[in-house]
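Per reviewer request, we include the raw input and output of the structure prediction for the construct analysed in the revised manuscript.
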Amino acid sequence: MRTWKTSVVLAVLVLALAVAPVALADNTRDDIGITITVETGQILEVVGDDIVLTIGLPEKPGERWTVKEGSLKGTFGLYYTTLVETDKTISLWAELENSEGLPRGFSITLTPNIDSNSIAGVAGTGNPATLKVDDSGSIPTDNLVSGIESCYTGSYKEGETAAVRVEYEVSLDEVTIIEGRQYGATLAFILGEQ
């Protein structure tokens, strides 16, 4: 009998512990850190055809020379991605490199068109620019887009219009100093601080 009483007491004790309210400890926590390193910088791609012109005599004597092949007008597409620190901006410049390889009087007018609806961020404000070769010997350069912050303009896709387009028009006004030979130079676009 005694064994039975002990078993009943143990069973009651186990049942009492099972239904007793559980005392919770204070909340505890652990952490996982988050570190994001943003590397500032910029990348640029220019999409368009080289400017290739063949200039020769007109059909009728006394008329202005003519462009026999190529075009004096055209368009480049610019695609860029930038990460710029807050409260800073960068610019996009146009420059005629090796301009000594062009005849004096050569000029190219660049007109940027920016479709801000197709761009994420601030892609800047376009500034028309004319780069002209003269006797100074300096490299023709001008600011084309200013006030660029962090942004991306979309990447090149065949058949689609670029969100940043540069229309150009070439002029050769000083015909008296054009020699009968081949000329060459490079139109460069430079994105960054200058």
